[in-house]
Amino acid sequence: QVQLVESGGGLVQTGGSLRLSCAASGSIVGINVLGWYRQAPGKQRELVADITRGGSTKYADSIKGRFTISRDNAKNTVYLQMNSLIPEDTAVYYCNSRDIWLRQAWGQGTQVTVSS
Fold first, then answer.
1. Cβ pair 82, 112 in contact under 8 A
2. Among 9, 14, 111, 112, which has the highest number of CB atoms less than 10 A from its own CB?
3. CA 59, CA 69: separation in Å to the nearest integer?
4. What is the Cα–Cα distance from 72 to 113, expressed in whole angstroms?
5. Which residues of the chain fall short of a pLDDT of 50?
6. Rounded-to-integer distance, Cα 31 and Cα 73, Å
7. SS3 label, residue 24
8. Residue pLDDT, tens place only, 79-92
9. Strands 18-26 and 2-7, how do they pair?
């Protein structure tokens, strides 16, 4: 099994920045995609961004130009740099992994709150 541990959430004012980190451990052989999802109260969980082992990225339209995803394959860690945060970014952010057999794992989630 893969274990994902997130860190870096918190409270920030509009226009501020946060950096989320997620470290993968356990059965990490075969992990291809690492990503971030978020879920706001009363809404469905949605993809924020993901990145393949080779470095290909995908972003949600709502955060393009403000968030940057990156990964360190040697450390089995994925990062999400979030700039120009707005209240609509308030959500629980979840780390996700997907391996070459399409098995998925989720982190426990980290709260991000942006005050107006």
1. yes
2. 112
3. 9
4. 26
5. none
6. 10
7. strand
8. 999 999 999 999 99
9. antiparallel
